[in-house]
Description:
InterPro entries: Phage_TAC_Siphoviridae. This is Phage tail assembly chaperone. It holds the Pfam family Phage_TAC_3. The chain is mainly alpha-helical. It contains 5 helices and 2 strands. It has a two-stranded antiparallel ribbon with strand order 1-2. The longest helix has 29 residues, at 23-51.
Amino acid sequence: MSVKIDVKELLGQAKKVEVKTTTKNFKKAIAFLRSLNKVQLDQKRNEKKNDAIEDLDSLEALELNEQNMASMIEMADTATQYIAETLKLSDKQVEKIDEEKDLDELMEFSMKLAEEVTGSKAEKAGDDSLKA
């Protein structure tokens, strides 16, 4: 079985991309969602720690900030990689996504893709809980 993914907004091509709903693609989708969940957990923990810090210019506060920024980069890279592998995109197509899409668009599409592949409606990761 397979699903047809509308990639017009992401890649500008009208033709839908067919993605097989194989166990391999299912595992990729779940691994992607798991990675996003880990980033969210890390950032929630950092938010709690940050709330307890009185001096926002302290070493601890700056380290938490650095961790949050690293998490955001990891999240963007993970989403891009998941999309590229699942849709079998060329390097040129991946570059186009990196250059033309913002993080919200990237995350929205990657979540939609994972939902289609797994046949579920996953909770939207990254909407309001990811902060730098």
